[in-house]
Amino acid sequence: MDDPKPSIALKASDVEPRARISSYPEPFATMMGGRSKRQLGDFFGLVNFGVNLTRLEPGAMSALRHTHSKQDEFIYVLAGCPTLITDEGTTILEPGMCAGFRAGSNNAHHLHNRSDQTVSFLEIGDRSAKDSATYPDDDIQAQLGVDGRWCFSHKDGSPY
Questions:
Q1: Which of 18, 49, 64, 98 would disulfide-bridge 76, Cβ 3.0–4.6 Å?
Q2: What are the two backbone dihedrals, phi and then psi, of residue 67, each rounded to the nearest 5 degrees?
Q3: Under a CB-based contact definition with an 8 Å cutoff, are residues 32 and 60 in contact?
Q4: Taking the alpha carbons of 123, 41, 32, 146 in that order, is the dihedral positive or negative?
Q5: Which residue has the higher pLDDT, 127 or 110?
Q6: Gap between the Cα atoms of 105 and 93, Å rounded
Q7: Total of domains in the chain
Q8: Strand order in 67-68's β-sheet?
Q9: Are 143 and 71 in contact (CB under 8 A)?
């Protein structure tokens, strides 16, 4: 029997969180503890852009602070008050606030939940071929492979 088609509409909370906490190599993967992602775009088979419903427990980060060469990113805060950290400094966000990061802007960014409440937000990004990511605070860099998976290396080019 064929697999049933996914629903046209559903509650985002009905999509199971991604099993793997992070695609980063260690020690960076462990730093993503307290973060969970529901890959909503993947559930519906979207191929041009991704949509994640991301949840950060107190103390958790959305990602290492990073910037993309080809991918635009957008976030929209649903609940809680995460701290947005960029090259300009810190901004406390609240529900209903959003932020966007244009590809190639070199404005490294991430969210950090410095509050005692759980944070949830939507993150939306395109899936541009030949994207790369730089991480100014850490010894890591990434290239998007032809298979759609990130390939990580040290900044000197040596593999993890």
A1: 98
A2: -145, 150
A3: yes
A4: negative
A5: 110
A6: 21
A7: 1
A8: 67-68, 132-134, 141-144, 150-153
A9: no
Type of residue at 154? H
SS (H, E, C) 31-74: HHCCEEEEEHHHHCCCCCEEEEEEEECCCCECCCCEEECCCCEE
The verdict on residue 145 lying in a domain is yes
Residue 40 structural domain: 28-153
36 lies in some domain? yes
In whole angstroms, what is the distance from residue 138 CA to residue 29 CA?
Answer: 13
- Tens-place pLDDT, residues 138-154: 999 999 988 888 999 99
- CB-neighbour burial class of residue 122 (10 A; exposed 0-12, middle 13-18, buried 19+): middle
Cis omega (within 30 of 0) on the bond before 25?
A: no
Q: Is 80 among the domain residues?
A: yes
The predicted structure's pLDDT at residue 2: 52
Q: Report pLDDT digits (tens) over 16-49.
A: 999 998 999 999 999 999 999 999 999 999 999 9
Q: What is the CATH number of the domain that holds 32?
A: 2.60.120.10
> Do residues 54 and 34 make contact, with C-beta atoms less than 8 angstroms apart?
no
pLDDT at 3 over 70: no
In a domain, 53, yes or no: yes
